[in-house]
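Lesson 9: reading folded outputs for more than one chain in a single document. The general rule is that every protein is listed as its sequence immediately followed by its structure tokens, and records are never interleaved. Here is the first one.
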Amino acid sequence: MTHLKKCDTGKLCLFLVSILFPCSFLLAQDYQVTRQKALDKLDLTAFGNVLFMNAAATTPNEINYLKNVSSRSLIKATSVTAEEWHNLYERVCDADLRPADQHMPGLEELMETNPSKLTRHDTVPIGIMALKATYLTDRELRMNEAQKSAGKAVDISSYNGFNIVYAAALQQDIYQADVWFRLSQKYLITNQLTRISRISIDFGDGEGFEEYSGNEQLVHHRYKTTGKHAIIISFKIESKRYKFETYVNVRQLDRVVPAMEFRVSAPAFIVDSLTRNARRKF
């Protein structure tokens, strides 16, 4: 591989990218093919709206954590960042085996995911997942596969289902003091007849919880300092109350408008009267 040493950095990077991108694409294809073959061996017809978490990239430890979050009496709020919510949501989408017209929307359909565009957003959605799911043990998977091979109907009532409940502010970095938090049934992701009628939010400003309806609305809050600010989200599903701690990171209090960005970041090359006069006009 001595010829690689003769390549300049740019050519070497392009060479490596040309190899790695096709490899990652092929690996993704192989994963999807292998995943679909494994699913085809199982009888999943009776699951209906219930998420089949074995089809998602997860572990028994994470499943136990999600069960614990949804079932315990919450004295202390569960911490969830925007990134953690996004990550779980994308994997949960893989566990939704319903047809496309009934399938959960992709993350990009819910919100803006382009980092360069997020800097211009002053509206932050509050996302809540309230989902019914099932995760089969290795023994249950083998029995399901054997019953399907034998042509026997699978009774899913013996499977232990659980709830996934997860909430967070869906955008972490914000670039102005005034922020509008969006509450909407659009961001209540559920596969059951669940409706959250009231949501309480504590912005950590000493004012305590303020209660809002779960209907479409914008909740305004003004931050006075930069940095991370915790937000507590509390709501009730049936008789159980859930509490989650999320946060936003206020990068700046005053938005730098595009016309000013060049002036702030780019020093003059030559300091003379012509340059100074030109800069004064901006």
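And here is the second record, again sequence then tokens.
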Amino acid sequence: MVERRRHDGIAARTAVDRMRASHTVK
């Protein structure tokens, strides 16, 4: 359970970073 929750957190963080990168590129 902990690992799964941790994975979700990483995925969310990656999504945020990706969105930020897109905005920066734009």
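What the second record shows: The chain has one helix and no strands.
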